[in-house]
Amino acid sequence: MDVVLDRSGVDAMHRSVRGATEGVLQLRTEFRAAGRETTLIAASTTAVLAPGLYQTPYGLAKRRQVVTYARSGVAGAALLSRDPVVLA
Questions:
Q1: Ramachandran assignment for 51, one of left (phi > 0), alpha (psi -120 to 50 degrees), beta (any other)
Q2: How far is CA 51 from CA 22, 33, 60, 67, 69, in A?
Q3: How confident is the model over 24-40, as pLDDT tens digits?
Q4: Among candidates 6, 31, 33, 27, which has minimal Cα distance to 18?
Q5: Where does residue 54 rank: exposed (0-12), middle (13-18), buried (19+ CB within 10 A)?
């Protein structure tokens, strides 16, 4: 699943990331209900690693996303890079 981030403003960006997170977790629930296991590979920039006082709105939103995935118990991995990652 690929999601286009709405960058028209901070609130829009937060809603985009939150919506993507909820969508992924909903898909996981549906796959599990059908007896299918899933593995999540989430790609992000290293913005999520910046110390709290230096976080950008995007970094904060992505950090919350990673925490939400971790708390959900979904199996997977997080890929971090300086630049956005495109998996083909």
A1: beta
A2: 25, 38, 10, 15, 20
A3: 899 889 998 999 988 88
A4: 6
A5: exposed
Query: Residue length, the chain?
Result: 88
- Show the tokens assigned to 44: 């992000």
pLDDT at 88 over 50: no
User: Could you tell me the two tokens for 19?
Assistant: 């919506």
Who contacts 47 (Cβ-Cβ below 8 Å, separation ≥6)? 55, 56, 58, 59, 62
The H or E element that residue 58 is part of is helix 57-72
CA distance 82 to 33: 36
What type of residue sits at position 56?
T
